[in-house]
Amino acid sequence: MSTRPGETEKRRARQLPRLYWVLWAGTLVNRAGTMVQPFFAFYLTGDRGLPIAEAGLILTAFGLGSVLSPLPAGWLADRAGRRVTLTAATLASGAAMVALSRSTSPLALSASMCGLGLTLDAWRPASTALVADLVAPPLRPRAYGLLFWASNLGFTGGVLVGGSLVQDHFATAMWIDAATSAAFGLLVWFALPGSEPALPEPTSQVTEKRGGFRDVLTDPVMARFTLVTFGYCLVYLQSLTTLPLTMRHAGLPPAAFSYAMAVNSAMIVLFQPWLSAWLDQWDRSRTAAAGIALTGIGFGATGLATSTAAFALTVALWTIGEILVSAVGSAIALDLAPTHLRGHYSGLYSLAWSLATLLAPLLGTRLLSVGGDVLWSACAATALVAAVGQFLLRPAVSARSS
To answer: I need a surface site. Which of 188, 202, 225, 372 has the fewest CB within 10 A?
Structure first.
């Protein structure tokens, strides 16, 4: 079959650069090694023999570290560069994981866990900014979507392996996690020497334009977008806390939650690459608004589910929303950012996730204690308000992007 004129050029235009695929491969390797984080509670109460309340305090130290991490990491990505920041963060994360494996006292465990929270995702602002450096704006939804796909593909494989490994060899799993973190950073370090994209302005002008988080926080469009993202995250993260509790309250075994979440993983692995190829052509604010609304509908319907199949259907609904938001969320944040503040904007976007990670379990369990209907109705309402907010941002986002 002959190729129509212009199709070859269009196909080439849609290709992502080699350095992007280095970042993609590193993300896959790094996330494949993330096999212990979901089992921290089991480690603290099992291997270390701590009571539940004390383990909870130590896990809170991890959450505190993760909240304190994004803004300094974004600042460092703009000041020291993406390559230095990403490599330093992943090496520090590996060191913190090794320290955690050797910690025995509650104080040492808390310090190691806080250090791990500070470093585990500190590479993300640099990674997100690096994608914007490497990829032309029209192709960024595809690039971020495929990066999200690699992250989920690696994490799913890591958890499957880690689930069996941590039962008797938790320390080994920690060392594997540390090694994959270091491998990610070193891969980027040796792939990018002398080739990290330079800012388009002369050095003197860049110095004058450096700015900081005050510039980011006083950007009204970015502030509203961050608030929308935070609302979406509060709802989405109920999948890790109150969703399994709701399924247990419905009389379903723990395996039912695994089956339902397998739908999430399978849909992301199967559909994310396919959808990413199309999202380049769609308006980003409308795509994000639709994804947030679908997330709200899916979690709102959770209050009506009583069987494993029904819960799996609600998971399928909000997974479609998750796929849409994951592809365009980072792209919108970086479209809003001046070139010299991409790391800062990425750091603020990451902070919305970190704050939601800390607060979602607290708010969700409080609402669930009042009633499941109250929780899931609140989730639906929060997501729909966020979707409307995102849609109303469309003119400002489009103007900034152009």
So the answer is: 202
